[in-house]
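Retro notes - structure team

What went well: the batch runner handled both jobs without manual restarts.
What didn't: labels got mixed up in the shared folder, which is why I'm recording both outputs here explicitly, each with its sequence directly above its tokens.

Job 1
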Amino acid sequence: MFENVQGWQVRAPACSTFTRGLTQVCHATVEGDPNPSTRHVPMGRKPKTGILLLNMGGPESTADVHDFLFRLFMDKDLMSIPAQRKLGPWIARRRTPKIQEQYSRIGGGSPIKRWTMCQGEGMVRLLDEMSPQTAPHKYYIGFRYVHPLTEEAIEGMERDGVQRAVAFTQYPQYSCSTTGSSLNAIYRHYASRGNPPAMKWSVIDRWPTHSGLVEAFAHNVHKEIECFPEDVREDVVILFSAHSLPMAVVNRGDPYPQEVAATVQRVMEKLNFSHPYRLVWQSKCGVKMIRRADSLNDNPTFIQAMADIVKTHLEEKQVCSRQLPLCCPLCTNPTCAKAKDFFVGQKP
């Protein structure tokens, strides 16, 4: 996922038409039931389709920071460091106080679970209307480094008797270190049990140029540009700021840089190339005069896009994209190929 900036600058996702009902649903989700996904399954009915929302996750409170960092630094799909079994826990302990302090400055924790619940709630409401033949739908959250973990979500899907499971990455641009890590976790879960899954699995593994995503980003960028004084508005430079990858990962052939660039291209097309722009990669320091466009969060256009993506995926009856079976040309992780084979071998 990327953001945007301007030079005078702007950074962000985007939005479009706000639907009052959908916005109210999101607020009810955030403030009310801690497990709101169950509210979309009528009493006595089991969910037919489960959508597993895959993401890294973030610590909800400062007390969660150490465990988050521990799992992160122990994930060899995300990073490979010497003597990782010993060095990973040491780095996690050493960095915990500093990261706790940083989270304290923004309210004490990450809002990612709250927003994922909001997005999932809106998505399944739309899907129940858009795709009644695959309803009832229920969303599940599968984080890599904090609860609810991916493995915990799968167990919940099995308890609910889900018939069809869709692994829906929340990273629009594919990377072996993000989406790949989550898919590997699903494969390892079943491999460790030695039993084939009872659910039929399929994967939405990337969506960097989906029209709803592009529209949402473009709207938020344009809205933020309009906040600049008219006398400098034409001088604004848009900076698309993406999370960086180690060059070792890029050199293995990870598709992430190309897919981020594809998103940038589509967003600028939507904006009619109204301003100069650059794709830049996040680092520890940068320019100060920046306005940040709003994140997508409860943006109805974005949530509608999520529902559209899942609906199209269910209708096409494909287990994954044509890209997923391809390993990076210089891949060094044998689990990647096994995980890809696992999903490709699922029957739609």
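Job 2
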Amino acid sequence: MDLTVRKLRYFTVVAEERHFTRAAARLFVAQQSLSRQIRDLEEEVGALLFYRTTRSVELTPAGEAFLAGVQSALASLDAGIEEARRHGAGAVGHLRIGFGLGAALELTPYIVEEFSKQFPHVEIEMREFGLPDQSAGLSDHWADVAIIRPPLADPGIIAHTLFVEPRVLTVSVRHALAQRQTVAVADILDVPLAVGRSADEEYRRFWSLQDFRTGLTEPILTPTTSNTEEIELIAAGLACTVNPAAIMRYIPHSGVRYIPIVDVPGSAVAIAWRRDRVSPLALSFNRVAQEVRDRETATVESIENPFSGVEFTSASVSHDHP
């Protein structure tokens, strides 16, 4: 038996129209060809499907029973085709998103919400990673895509920047620099720093300000495993640290001060994935994130310029070591 999908679709249209001429017009085929296809179908099924008159056609009992099965089969077929297309286009499946503290900051809910709207058939799983894994799950292949803070040493990670925010020095309220409005790099090169316990050399270099220490002794570094652990050490006066400015909003603490560093490059937040594991969903997530960034200009402005409107006097920056 060779029941082609085309014949089955022809049959359902004739059953709906109850008229060969109208059905042929709807299907954009010649009436004679349509009649022949239906006769062939009846022969293949082995039953008369329509009562024919000069004015109309009516389903026979066999035709009624056949129609119910055909409609169900075609609906399942169409659903399967649509599902296959979604898979092929990366519009269905499971997306695992890794992130560190704050993820993409205030943009995060907008990005995830927009992605869910555009890809309603994708199941999203999110996981926060601590300071030891700055790749946010990319290095161990848990994450399909991650929200990270470059630079990282792993050449297998591709990162696309969303925005860049200032860096701040975090000190105890009792520290000698605590009353300063801003600091410069020269003010803090001799200050013992807490730095996340990460094996990534580029990460440690960036947050310990190593690029500014040419010819100077190595900094005294205290490794930490979480941002809250770091802040508690600082509040106790045991170290200072360099943080992204968002730390002020995500971990406010009465025992510390966050002071802008005026002469260092900012900290970027980026969407990243592995070079050897590029999924269509990861690329789509990056596209959506960039679109949201371009749309939410006021939010991005507040992230990149958190000290906008704050006037700093020249006396607030000293180039003498504390």
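One thing worth noting from job 2: The longest strand covers residues 157-165.
We'll revisit the folder naming next retro.
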